Amino acid sequence: MKRLVLLGGGYGNMRVLLRLLPNQLPDDVEITLIDRTPYHCLKTEYYALASGTISDQEVRVSFPEHERLKMKYGTVTKIDINSKQVLLEGGDSVDYDDLVIGLGCEDKYHNVPGADEYTHSIQSIHQARATYSKLSNLPSGSIVGVVGAGLSGIELASELRESRSDLEIKLFDRGERILPAFPVRLSNYVKKWFDANQVEIVSNSNITKVEPNMLYNREESIPVDVCVWTAGIQPVEVVRDIPTEKDSSKRLVLTQYHNLPENEHVYVVGDCASLPFAPSAQLAEEQAEQIVKVLQARWKGDKLPEEMPKIKLKGFMGSLGKKHGFAYLADRTITGRIARLMKSGVLWMYKYHNG
């Protein structure tokens, strides 16, 4: 019996399961999924969980059930690609024939002193819960700093504004304008929403140090009661420790078949993979589609295509609270209630197909 081991129950490996189960898994293959939590977590919604506008249950989806799917819960401490073994906290180990690494990411602090110690995170469900606890218990008039004005920072700041109208919120952006890689119309819409809802955007910022209740924007000291860090990500440490080629962001370099160049039995999906796109749930799912096809071909002994199809992303969507949003799809900018409804619809469809 061949052993396919999936590390992490995120968007990529959920798509692997969706495509293989219940009827596309060869009779001589069994799957083991290893994750820290007993359910799939909707990471794209952690900003709302941390802000307190949705419940914990709304970001959880049950893993599928199948007689040849084994679940193992624990924290991965080492991936030994030479012995084809995964080591877990507490001493357990799991052997594999094929491995798909989808362990996700953690915050990247860019060597800013105090950032790892004095800021809060929304990178895992455990961290999002802790951030919610901290934010929800703030007294009225408290100041919240959100460092990083990418999609996560924008959605967190806007959702927190709807949840806590009594807080002062500062969003620190390194750029001249919000979302500079996208059309000016989209940036202007987001900025206008923040201006209308009294969220201060601190443009051209460069956070150089974090202390308890204090941020340093270059030489300027800015008091904050809570700081949430959304200013960059990197693969989790256990993935960064794998002795293989990595890019400048410590993501693992892959072949066009999504496996390590020196090991065709080790695949990488999602935030840990070096690809010419920004990490996203959509990208992980598109990768997973191709990984399943490669696995099925190799299991059958079929020849792989000389060139894999280029991954094409549909665009992205973001929310500004529960009633407004923005999207960039097929080179078109969409803003307002329609964009927000579109995002809600995509989330509903995802839960429907995976729940």
Architecture overview:
This protein is an alpha/beta fold. It folds into 2 domains: 2-36 and 74-106 and 233-300, FAD/NAD(P)-binding domain; 110-231, FAD/NAD(P)-binding domain. The chain is built from 9 helices and 23 strands. It has helices spanning 11-20, 46-51, 115-118, 125-136, 151-163, 184-196, 237-240, 281-300, 337-354; strands spanning 2-7, 29-35, 40-41, 60-61, 69-73, 76-80, 85-88, 93-95, 98-101, 105-107, 143-147, 168-172, 199-202, 207-211, 214-217, 220-223, 226-229, 233-235, 259-260, 263-268, 315-320, 324-329, 332-336. Strand 21 (315-320) and strand 22 form a beta hairpin. Helix 1 packs across helix 8 (281-300). The relative contact order is 0.15.
Summarize the model shown:
This protein has helices at 11-20, 46-51, 115-118, 125-136, 151-163, 184-196, 237-240, 281-300, 337-354; strands spanning 2-7, 29-35, 40-41, 60-61, 69-73, 76-80, 85-88, 93-95, 98-101, 105-107, 143-147, 168-172, 199-202, 207-211, 214-217, 220-223, 226-229, 233-235, 259-260, 263-268, 315-320, 324-329, 332-336.
